[in-house]
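note to self: dont lose this again. the chain is below, predicted strucutre after it. 105 aa total, dont forget to put it in the shared folder this time
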Amino acid sequence: MDDFLKKAFLVGLGAISLTRERTEKFVKEMEAKGEVTSSELKELVNEMMEKGEEGQKALTEFIKKEMERVKQSMGMATREEVTMLEKRLKDLEARLDNSRTVEET
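---
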């Protein structure tokens, strides 16, 4: 399951990278044709970088939400729940060890 989610995340990042490459190509073509000035080009690139970062954050948030939804639908325990159960198990083991020690004396 984790492998699937990692692959989905990487596909999303790949799509963002591909979009960035296309955007850079488009911007360079516009500059070559004289359709934008260098100051406009810098502004356009900065704006596109911001949009890319926003898209990446949105994709990351979407994947996190989907992972949680899948975990819940499969009835998987959260890390917090597992940690709590581990602590309870250790406490029970300690109590069992203590009761055995009392019985032996």
